[in-house]
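Notes to self after the Tuesday call (sharing in case useful).
The group wants a holo model before anyone commits to mutagenesis around the pocket. I volunteered. Ligand is coenzyme A. Logging inputs and output together so the record is complete.
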Amino acid sequence: MDLSSLTIDIVAASYVAALSAISKQTFQEAFGAQNSESDMTAYLAKSFSTEQLLKELHTPGCTFYFARIDGKVIGYMKLNTGAAQSDLQESDSLEIERIYILQPWQGTGIAAAMMELAIDTAKKIEAQSIWLAVWEHNDRAIRFYTKFGFTAFGRHPFILGSDVQTDIMMRKMLV
Ligand SMILES: CC(C)(COP(=O)(O)OP(=O)(O)OC[C@H]1O[C@@H](n2cnc3c(N)ncnc32)[C@H](O)[C@@H]1OP(=O)(O)O)[C@@H](O)C(=O)NCCC(=O)NCCS
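Result:
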């Protein structure tokens, strides 16, 4: 896989339509088969509308990144610090709330490049730890995070439409 044209850049609010499109496409690809159509439709409409994403793009401490190959968006990541974190909200931690790559680009090193960027960002702001939450049945993602030194430290609920699921919270210490 030729990654020479890979770029990973902060998403400006003017790209909200592209952000909505890649968010919906990657979530559907990743979880569509294991969830009911009505739960998926409700979740995609609520979480990935341009209105909701615009709110997040303007939230202090919340930053989105696009991964592009030859200029085409093939993945994205959402990092939160401070009060923007979805849980924990420690002043000295950074959350990876989302990291999603289109299927053809999984296993190519692009997700690893995004993870390295997240870890570098956390180190730059002198965060003590970097954390995330992952669906308990998402074996591939759990394996990916484990490779990077994340270990489980808790669980919290994740609501997908009408379905209450369990996320494993994983953390990597940086100091
Ligand atoms: C999670 C994600 C970002 C990881 O990126 P990736 O490029 O697929 O990661 P890698 O291929 O480097 O690592 C995945 C590891 O899981 C392994 N793996 C693949 N399928 C697996 C499975 N079904 N069960 C367990 N491990 C699996 C791979 O072999 C690899 O481990 P290895 O390097 O030891 O061989 C990417 O798969 C993705 O975007 N998935 C869909 C969205 C998603 O689930 N995002 C995370 C939400 S919390």
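Two things stood out.
The chain is about 35% helix and 35% strand.
The longest strand covers residues 163-173.
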